[in-house]
Amino acid sequence: MDTNPGYLLADNSRLLRRAFDERVREAGVTAPQARLLLNLERHPGRNQAFYAERLEIEPITLCRMVDRMEEAGLVERRADPDDRRARLLHLTVRSRGKIARIRAALDGLIETMLAGFDAEEEAVFMAMLERVSTNLSAPSKELAANG
């Protein structure tokens, strides 16, 4: 077993991403579509550039994905009242059922991921992940502030 924490985090991230892809596919969407739906649920009514940035994909890629999802009745574009050229994305009634299936799949994924952990171990693990996230975020924030 490799003891390099960077490798272990990256490898676990790869495994988690693969499991996520498989689980959401069973819910009837691709992983990028699931990520968009979950982001729309958390941050409704933003423009496509916002979601492209959050998903770390090119705006044209998101636009094509939204075209397909709009045709499938999962999202809708509405005019931005503050910018007549812009369109804001919103969930549809149909997408709410899809999100419920995605969330159920993800609950099962988290259960699998944390199998064998007791409540205290889960809490410690989460605190450690938060600290790693904070540590990795700090340098980029410092560079941006000083840049």
TrEMBL record:
Q: Which domain of life is it from?
A: Bacteria
Any one GO biological process = response to stress
Query: What molecular functions are annotated in GO for this chain?
Result: DNA-binding transcription factor activity
Q: InterPro entries, from UniProt?
A: HTH_MarR-typ, MarR/SlyA-like, WH-like_DNA-bd_sf, WH_DNA-bd_sf
Q: Which Pfam families match?
A: MarR_2
Q: Where is the HTH marR-type domain?
A: 2-134
PROSITE patterns this protein is in?
HTH_MARR_2 (PS50995)
Q: What is this protein called?
A: MarR family transcriptional regulator
* Source organism per UniProt: Pelagerythrobacter aerophilus
